[in-house]
Amino acid sequence: MTSRFEQALDKLKTTGVRMTPQRHAILAYLLDTMTHPTADDIYRALEDRFPSMSVATVYNNLKVFIEAGLVRELTYGDDSSRFDSDMSEHYHAICDHCGKIVDFDHPPLHALELAAASQTGFRVKGHRLEVYGLCPECASAVTH
């Protein structure tokens, strides 16, 4: 069984993307984390290993991964974009206080897309669902 990292490398090879050490490290970091990091988070995590790397380099590499279908960009209001390497159909719960994003699984809401298409005439290509509240840590801090 091949790892997610090996699958990602194979996909990049087929799209003609050259694998640099920085690209390798950024991809490995994304695949290993569940925190939905910003480009700045990734930069800070890797800057000791790659002192000449900039936030712009991280962001440019993230764009390459997005174009290759390995990463999705999550934008929420005015906050920095966050990046998710889990390309499965899933949804997000977001803490109003600390901004933590946690994945949760739920059967895809295809009926919602069909209803939207029917009522609006749109050719619906997808949807995004987030729920908002307080994560357990922030909720605990509020009650104490």
From TrEMBL:
UniProt subcellular location: Cytoplasm
Cofactor: Zn(2+); Mn(2+); Fe(2+)
Gene3D superfamilies in the record: 3.30.1490.190, Winged helix-like DNA-binding domain superfamily/Winged helix DNA-binding domain (1.10.10.10)
GO biological process, one term: regulation of secondary metabolite biosynthetic process
Cofactor detail note: Binds 1 zinc ion per subunit.
Primary location recorded for the protein, binned into one broad class: cytoplasm
Cellular component terms per the entry's GO annotation: cytoplasm
Residues annotated to bind Zn(2+): 95, 98, 135, 138
Keyword presence, Iron: yes
InterPro entries membership: FUR (IPR002481), Fur_C (IPR043135), WH-like_DNA-bd_sf (IPR036388), WH_DNA-bd_sf (IPR036390)
SUPFAM superfamilies the record matches: Winged helix' DNA-binding domain
Residues reported to bind Fe cation: 127
Function: Manganese-dependent repressor that controls a regulon of oxidative stress resistance and iron-storage proteins. May act as a hydrogen peroxide and organic hydroperoxide sensor.
Protein's recorded name: Transcriptional repressor
Organism: Paenibacillus ginsengarvi
